[in-house]
Design a protein that fits this description.
It contains 3 helices and 7 strands. The protein has helices at residues 3-10, 58-78, 105-120, and strands at residues 27-30, 33-39, 42-43, 46-47, 86-97, 127-133, 142-150. The longest helix is centred in the middle third of the chain and has 21 residues, at 58-78.
Amino acid sequence: MSIETRLNELGINLPEAAAPVASYLPVVVAGNMAYVSGQLPFINGNLVSGRLGEDVGLERGVDAAKACGLMILSQIKTAGISLDRIERIVKLGAFVNSTPDFTDQPKVANGASDLMFNIFGEKGRHARAAVGVPSLPLGAAVEVDAVIALTSE
């Protein structure tokens, strides 16, 4: 089954890929690896901002991480790479804008991790880092980057 078919089955529509906010490329392909720059969470076109443990609840944080995962896939597609070429999600890095006493970064990151498994099955299981940070670009609540293995064209 194609990934587009799987997305349709899950009722998932990928968002429009966000333009870079600084001097970098959203996706760089080297060999059979795609490196996706950190993606911010946009839900219904609006940036999810704030800090976990302060003004953003856990459920909203999980939704934000999922939105970052969707943006990762959108960036791959916008770079002209078929989602069917994704051989494996190798690693996700989740950065959670959180207070010093907030310790549920792994639960927040599960929003992106669970999304990848739900779409890609075993190919979506990956290594991961989930860290708390004092701030993120544009005041975002979460940022997620990715390393993705691709099949040959």
